[in-house]
Amino acid sequence: GAGLARGYLNLLDLTSERFISNPFATEQDLLKGYDRLYKTGDLVRWLADGNLEYLGRNDDQVKIRGYRIELGEIEHALSGIEGISQSCVLVKERESLSGVVKSLVGYYVLDQGEVVLEESLILEELGAVLPEYMVPGALVVMDSFPLTINGKLDKRSLPDPDFSGSMEAYMAPRTELEI
To answer: Are 91 and 97 a contacting pair, CB within 8 Å?
Structure first.
């Protein structure tokens, strides 16, 4: 529309990723120059009464091994563990024997004064509140999260995890005996 920016200043890659051709543009729209859309990442649906209903963020919902996963649910569970002040969960691709697979990676920042949390305890707590397919395949402890110039979490700057550890084989306890 008329109020759409031309793009991000000096950020051509981000501009081409977020400002896309408008597949819904009519001939009239094209004559007015309304030929692009901005991908906000918001999910909405059009209701019968003409209103839009906000459903959430597209970038927070992923599909891994046939399961639709809300990354925010995992982040909430991770942040709920005593000693963890902040968390972020991303999907990262890694090489495996069967080819490239997607894996969940949990990044977290410890509370001030907290020395260390054992990864096995974190995984055990996550396994108690999340289904097995939502437990991250790798955890990365951070001193602090990188921020963009706007003060938002810079997810692109988070380091790649080390998938070589034993966490790949982790399975949450399913019975009292296994605990």
So the answer is: no
